[in-house]
Amino acid sequence: VRTAPVALTTDAWIEIPPGGYPAWLESLSARRARSIRSEIRKFEKAGYELEHRTLAESWQDVARLLARSLLRYGRTVDVAPMADSFRKQGELAGSRAEVVLCSRPGEPPVGFCLYYRCGDTVYLRAHGLDHDQLVSAAEYFNLTYYMAARLPGVRWLHAGAGTAEGKALRGATLRPLWLLDLSEDSPLAGYDEEIREHNRALLARLRDSSPVVSGALEGELWGPYC
């Protein structure tokens, strides 16, 4: 890499202490821990059940629910090719592609979370919800973060980019996600100072966006290229 890295957005990581899920709750502020416990109680009261399967076993539900979730945000997709993509992914990944399906007893699933596990780290990779069938019981957070935090032996959750404040409220630290140009004739060559200015401006916008986001930023990882 011959040019300065370009900051794209935040990359969220949630550390689960050695004591597991209970220790994670204790590591949060009292207010945040109360909020999470309230969301878990709502989810349990709604009567949801979580079923752990592989992607190879559940790709049809995954595709259907992801399409329903995208539709809520105005994106209409053809389910068939997306389902075929998940089917192939499930065949290639085998037992490493794990899915949690959320449903009420005797009913089709209304949500899923697809994740991969490597050692003590869980990589949250996709989720989908049929919002018309939900009952406002914090389904998204229960199906993703709270489910994953309870998995035995987990020390890190990789929550990825986007929705920085919501992830920070669940205890995530926000690392920079960089673009690295590996080309020999990079169009970025000679613009290191402009890149650093861009990186500084992005960091400033994040700090100003909310106190929660500002407190979750890992400043020492941004500093060398700002």
Q: What do you see in this structure?
A:
- This protein has about 230 residues and is of the alpha+beta class.
- The chain folds into two domains: about 5-10 and about 175-225, no CATH class; about 15-155, Aminopeptidase (3-Layer(aba) Sandwich).
- Helix content is about 45%, strand content about 25%.
- The protein has nine helices and seven strands; from the N terminus they run E-H-H-E-H-H-E-E-E-H-E-H-E-H-H-H.
- It has helices spanning about 20-25, 30-45, 55-70, 80-95, 140-150, 165-170, 190-210, 210-215, 220; strands at about 5-15, 50-55, 95-105, 110-120, 120-130, 155-160, 175-180.
- It has a seven-stranded mixed β-sheet, sandwiched between helices.
- About 30% of the residues are buried.
- The model has no long low-confidence stretch (mean pLDDT about 95).
Task: Provide keyphrases for this structure.
226 residues; alpha+beta; Aminopeptidase; 7 strands; globular
State mean pLDDT (0 to 100 scale): 95
Question: How is the largest sheet built, in terms of strand order?
Answer: 2-3-4-5-6-1-7
Share of helical residues? 40-55%
CATH superfamily of the largest domain: Gcn5-related N-acetyltransferase (GNAT)
Residue windows where pLDDT falls under 50 for at least 5 positions: none
Gap between N and C termini, in Å? Answer: 17 Å
**Mind summarizing the main beta sheet?**
7 strands, mixed
Count every helix, treating DSSP H or I runs of 4 or more residues as helices: 9
Query: Structural class of the helix and strand makeup?
Result: alpha+beta
- H and E string: EHHEHHEEEHEHEHHH
Outline type: globular
Strand content: 15-25%
CATH topology of the largest domain: Aminopeptidase
Number of structurally distinct domains: 2
| Overall CATH class of the largest domain | Alpha Beta
Radius of gyration: 19 Å
Q: What is the architecture of the largest domain at the second tier of CATH? A: 3-Layer(aba) Sandwich
Number of strands: 7
